[in-house]
């Protein structure tokens, strides 16, 4: 079955080598399926942006179009409050107090929310969303296109999970969820800990279950519809929820379908990732991207740029150290 091309959205923050390697591996396995790549940079600075603007890099990715945008101010890993988007759980007066502060400071805009510029500006039916630390090994875009087209009203497909943050982890797993199992009447709200898994209330639940946004695909029209109905943006951070988790909750509650074509069957502490790792590897250096930066993560790991440069030169024939990395005035 032939499918129309998709666009790609990826967030950038001070790891240009890793982001380029991610895109190069994606091009190798699914290049013909992609039209435009939206790179949204979180104020990394000219040294990072110069990689994406370089003529050699742009030429390598042709016929892809690379659309580069920088945030108006650093977004980091915090919630961005927007006047037209109040999630249902948030009290009106609390929201108004936040908006008052928002309009009396250096402000964010909607485009600064992760992936939102791509969601709002793509003209494709589907948007493929990735992190900047993924090694692609097979055509996961094609697999996701099959899954998202298999059933009407499917809003998102990808890696179902965050079981490590859920108190139901001893009884539930992605495969069981996809087979119709529900760990509690509150699902996709989840128990905050194992000792509360049998008795937690909707007032104390968390939002762990989600389609993980490090490698997923959205139906763009449905994604916009879910945000409009729920006041919740896919890429924003919310109370008791990581990126996309509250959006996932609202999508399910509104009756939209979610799919994971490669669901794990084992318990989180015994996860066998061989099936998924045949297609892609998130954190190909052995850790997630967030663990590198103190200001946007845990700061527990060191960014191994030289290793990635070697990978790029060996696998794709581009020596990043030989590039002229002069920032350009135009970034679109």
Can you tell me about this structure?
The protein is an alpha/beta fold. It has a single domain (6-159, 212-238, 260-321), classed as Spore Coat Polysaccharide Biosynthesis Protein SpsA, Chain A, CATH 3.90.550. Helix content is 30%, strand content 16%. The chain has eleven helices and nine strands. A seven-stranded mixed β-sheet has the order 3-2-1-4-7-6-8, sandwiched between helices. Strands 5-9 form a two-stranded antiparallel ribbon. α1 packs parallel to α11 (305-316). It starts with 5 loop residues before the first strand and ends in a 16-residue tail after the last helix. The mean pLDDT is 90.
Radius of gyration based on Cα positions: 20 Å
Indicate the mean pLDDT: 90
String of helices and strands: EHEHHEHHEEHEHEHHEHEH
Strand order of the largest sheet: 3-2-1-4-7-6-8
Number of β-strand runs? 9
Question: Any idea how many domains?
Answer: 1
Q: Enter the CATH topology name.
A: Spore Coat Polysaccharide Biosynthesis Protein SpsA, Chain A
The CATH class designation is Alpha Beta
- Shape by Cα distribution: globular
> What's the architecture, going by CATH?
Alpha-Beta Complex
**Helix proportion:** 25-40%
Q: Can you count the helices? A: 11
Largest sheet: 7 strands, mixed
| Strand fraction | 15-25%
SS-derived structural category: alpha/beta
Distance between the termini: 33 Å
Please mark out the parts with pLDDT under 50 across 5 or more consecutive residues, or reply none.
Answer: none
């Amino acid at each position: 079955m032939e499918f129309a091309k998709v666009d790609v959205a990826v967030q950038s923050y001070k790891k240009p080598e890793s982001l380029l390697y991610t895109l190069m591996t994606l091009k190798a396995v699914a290049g013909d399926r992609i039209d435009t790549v939206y790179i949204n940079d979180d104020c990394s600075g000219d040294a990072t942006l110069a990689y994406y603007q370089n003529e050699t890099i742009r030429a390598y990715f042709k016929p892809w179009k690379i659309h580069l945008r920088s945030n108006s101010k650093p977004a980091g890993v915090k919630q961005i409050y927007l006047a037209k988007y109040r999630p249902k759980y948030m009290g009106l007066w609390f929201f108004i107090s936040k908006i008052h502060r928002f309009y009396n400071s250096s402000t964010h805009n909607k485009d600064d929310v992760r992936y939102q510029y791509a969601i709002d500006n793509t003209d494709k039916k589907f948007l493929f969303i990735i992190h900047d630390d993924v090694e692609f090994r097979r055509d996961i875009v094609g697999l996701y296109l099959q899954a998202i087209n298999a059933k009407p009203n499917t809003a998102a497909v990808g890696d179902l999970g965050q079981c490590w943050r859920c108190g139901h982890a001893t009884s539930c797993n992605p495969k069981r969820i996809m087979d119709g199992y529900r760990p509690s009447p509150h699902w996709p709200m989840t128990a905050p800990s194992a000792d509360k898994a049998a008795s937690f209330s909707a007032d104390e639940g968390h939002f762990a279950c989600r389609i993980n946004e490090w490698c997923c695909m959205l139906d763009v029209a449905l994604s916009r519809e879910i945000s409009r109905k729920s006041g919740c943006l896919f890429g924003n951070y919310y109370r008791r929820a990581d990126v996309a988790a509250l959006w996932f909750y609202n999508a399910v509650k509104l009756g939209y379908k979610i799919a994971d074509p490669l669901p794990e069957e084992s318990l989180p502490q015994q996860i066998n990732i061989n099936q998924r790792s045949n297609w892609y590897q998130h954190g190909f250096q052995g850790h997630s991207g967030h663990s590198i930066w103190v200001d946007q993560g845990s700061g527990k790991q060191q960014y191994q740029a030289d290793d990635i440069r070697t990978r790029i030169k060996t696998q794709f024939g581009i020596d990043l150290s030989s590039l002229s990395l002069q920032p350009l005035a135009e970034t679109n």
